Amino acid sequence: MRLFTIIFVIFYSTCIPQQQLSIESQYIPHTDTCLVFTPSDYDETVKYPVIFLLHGWEASYRQWSEITDLNKLANYYDFIFVCPDGFTDSWYVNNPLRHGLQIADFFIMDLIPFILDKYSIDRNKVFISGLSMGGFGAVSFFLDNQNIFRSCASTSGIMNIKTFKNNWGMSLAFGLYEQHPLNYSKFNPIEKLDKIEEIKPFLIDCGTEDRIFVTNKEFFEKCQQNKIPITFIAQPGIHNKKYWAKAIIQHLNYFKNVIIGD
């Protein structure tokens, strides 16, 4: 049984509404908070594209709104943005060691259906993006649930977690690599590419001075090898807010072009 406790807190910034939702679920240990940004002229008779934005490791649902002006972007692109909380270091997976922390089930079974029902959304235009741990999460959700997502994008995402095993709280999400190597294979985005017959076009990017870059380049090359339609943006930058503020604009332009091409 799914349980929802919804708390609406409306803020006003340049006349654009922002809602804060608190959601309970049987799949998570405590309420999940997310921010929702809608265009200033939001009209329930219009169907909008929606983008779920996932934060990075040791961050929260506030991270994206601290990086860029989501109010302004919602108005400019006519998108709805949803920024959920990834419980700091969940890696957006069903934790194989903690049965009370099933983040993937929470997202797919509870959060996304609730957002799609509450807001006026075109269900053929559901996108997901994220940074760092959230980039890993966005690609993982997309590869596992292409029936839900039209496309995805990742910025500075860890596309091969084995390269950085036991870093950034991975041992809490997947277990210590030395004890649970199969978990790292099960959840690894680059290894999922061999298990999916057909994949919709999507995008990844990473700064060339970011040490994460090596996993993005490897992931891109694997996609090319498997004839998977991917756009890879390799550009100067490091693992920081300045880079992500630039990258999210590229993601939004990519998603807009996907919509235009439909």
Helical/strand content category = alpha/beta
CATH topology: Rossmann fold
Number of domains: 1
Mean of the pLDDT scores?
92
CATH class: Alpha Beta
- Helix percent reads 25-40%
Largest sheet report = 9 strands, mixed
Radius of gyration: 17 Å
Q: How many E-type strands? A: 9
Oligomeric organization of the protein chains: single chain
Strand order of the largest sheet: 1-2-3-5-4-6-7-8-9
Please state the second-level CATH architecture: 3-Layer(aba) Sandwich
User: What name goes with the CATH superfamily?
Assistant: Alpha/Beta hydrolase fold, catalytic domain
Distance between the termini: 36 Å
| Low-pLDDT residue spans | 1-16
Could you state the order of secondary-structure elements as H and E?
Answer: EEEEHHEHEHEHHHEHEH
Q: Can you describe what's shown?
A:
The protein is of the alpha/beta class and 262 residues long. The chain has one domain (9-261): 3-Layer(aba) Sandwich (Rossmann fold), CATH 3.40.50. 34% of the residues lie in helices and 22% in strands. It contains 9 helices and 9 strands. It has helices at 63-67, 70-77, 103-118, 133-144, 170-174, 181-186, 189-192, 213-225, 241-261, and strands at residues 9-13, 16-23, 32-37, 48-54, 80-83, 121-131, 151-155, 202-207, 230-235. A 9-stranded mixed sheet has the order 1-2-3-5-4-6-7-8-9, sandwiched between helices. The termini are far apart. The model is unreliable at 1-16 (pLDDT under 50).
